[in-house]
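Q&A log
Question type: sequence-to-structure
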Amino acid sequence: MSPTLIRRLLIALVVVLLVGGGLWRAGRPKPVAVALKEIDRGKVESTIANTRAGTVEACLRTKLNTITGGRIETMAVKEGDRVKKGQLLMRLWNDDQKAQYTLAQTGLESTRKHVAEACVPAANAEREAERQAALHARNFVSSSAEELARADADAKRAACEAAKADVTQAQAKVEAAKVELARTVLYAPFDGIVAKIVGEVGEFSTPSPPGVPTPPAIDLIDDSCMYVSAPMDEVDAPKVKTGQVVRITLDAFPKQPFAGTVRRVAPFVSEAEKQARTVDVEANFDHPEAAGRLLVGYSADIEVILATRDNAVRVPTSALQEGNKVLVAGSDGVLQERKIKAGVANWEYTEVLEGLSAGEKVVTSLEREGVKAGVHFAADAANK
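Response status: OK
Response body:
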């Protein structure tokens, strides 16, 4: 065979191989682009969180009103003022109650003087009755004289006791007048800050009648103690116990979680129209100073930590399919389905007890079209 013929045959063979390779590549399925995540080791926590936003609350907060209505005569504080327990906050016009109190005190002093006026003669009469009894024993006076002296002593003693009873009655009138006077005055029941005032000097202040909510005259908050109250789904409520560790997050301090502890789990289920039934869970801040100055009403979330695994093999929870199956990136460029045994889990990571090893890669973009076991894949540029 001549060299020219051999060269032509080789060229023809190369052409055939190139054409065949091109046809094979054209017929091969196009790889599916997927997002991959490498399996690593780290902390995994089992947690539950509130269903709706919670709220920062004050341990002590009271909305104060005078017991009786009247015209505001003195407003001793303004919004934002810090007050001490027992400090005067507001006083209504109470000249009439003051007059009644003064009158009651004057009556008390008068009855006390009547006691001295009645009891001194009673003591003298008692001594005279004893003297007459001694004389009668010696037959110096008649029995009728002794009886007359004793009757006089008893009458004057009764008058003395009646005068003392009048003092007690007068004291009760003073206390009653004092109570009426107190109905027109507001004092701080604890140290705190005045959050809001409704009313000005000269305006009429009216207490809330039963069943009719009206704005309080003064809203007083003790901002030295704060906690978070948040609603948990009734399904999760049995898992929550007092003393459990929680993670608190505040919208006012994004990406800055605070350590806390469950302080109370409500003993009843709340039912709101068109909303899931929930149980209110309250949590204290372990280190409230870390958050700085907290404001009552901040929106907050509670994440109750049920279990923790350190240095666990973990897979992104978004990579799990039904039945705890994952798609693993095979070394041959084909996606492989694998079933794992899962442990502790949360919305971010799931602990892997069996089925995966650190360093393997799993698909996290399960929602993409064509992503399934047995297909060729190509990792997204971000995964390369």
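Response note: Helices lie at 3-27, 95-137, 143-182.
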